[in-house]
Amino acid sequence: MKKEKAAILKSPSNIRIANQIVVMDYIRERPISCIELSKKTSLSNPALKLITEELLEEKLIVPYVNINNGKKGRGRQRVLYTVDNDIGVFAAIDLSGRDMVFCISDASNQILIRDTVKHVIYIDEDVLKEISRKLKNMLLSDVVNNRPLLGICISSPGKFDKLTHDFISAPRVKDCRTLNIQKYFENEFHVQCEMFNDINLGLAGEARFGSIPKDAKNVFFVFIDITSGSSLMFNGDLYTGSNGFAGEMANINEVDDCSRNYLGRFFTITDIYAEIHEFSKDSNDPFFKQDVFQLNDVVERYKQNDPIVSKAVDKSARVNALQLLYIANLLDLDYICIDGRILDFGKEYFETLLRYFRLYDKNFNTVQIITSSLNHDSNLLGAVYQASSKYLLSRFAEMAKKRTNSENYGAISYFANRVQ
To answer: What pTM value is reported for the model?
Structure first.
């Protein structure tokens, strides 16, 4: 174990921070009593008393009284704790789709107001200006009620340096070598601004609010759409790799027969379209003469058992089952979660994929394959969660400094990727 990581784990201040994170996550879900917190966290009553008193003092939580009337006239007061949503609000921005989606949320991760900039093919400074303009108007809305903006989290496509946020490659971002999206919003709003890979935030959103069970520790999250991408959670933390690029699909120079014939990624909707064109060369059906297909039309053909479309979609299920089986064998996971418009092909497609997975599997995998329940909002909700969580981590670090009159031993960087 690296020396700095060992110091983090042994530091009493950072043990306190770890416990504060757990307690605040439960309090952010709903009002809760110390008795319930003790059962859920296994923390002692004295430890919870210290944590809640400090959170109250810092005005991060507030108490309120719940009248529990078991019998008329014999009610007793029970103190619950809830988030102090008056501390401020957060902005979450998802740049991953054709519609740029963004929202304002409170400290309990409730979305107060949301908006979009529609039909964006390439992201440039004009797009960022329009998002900023709309966000500023949203901050003036009645639901925000003059609360200050405390932080921003951006879900971004492309590969970027995890420290400077300068793009390394981003086909959808114009002038990506000079346009630093994180710095742009930081300069516009003068608050802490974080930027994460979109698929990483998709996993965070699904883990906190979606179909991934709360006790899951090792998860592979895959997004299959026009393109594909993936992300990983190990031991409850997002795994981003040495350079922040973990989960990237293969992007291979096709220089010989071996590299030309190697897919090395998931079979996307784009691949389905290509196979439909290939399989329909001898067909006289005008539908197959289109240069560009619309997904809704292809899905409808699939539901009608069109033989050409069904053959292409079936190939997608077979290839993707093999890809998932390879990942399952390599990583020994609790869950695999699938998101993206590949799910528009419905229950039949998912069941076909599972059937091929079981057919190909000789290792008796126990991994459970599930689908997203967030209706393509996983990236945005992941940004909602990370925006408030990073702010709380900074507050916990300041509390530790004040409490111990010392530094926090890098706890922020250690806890920043925690999602479970």
So the answer is: 0.89
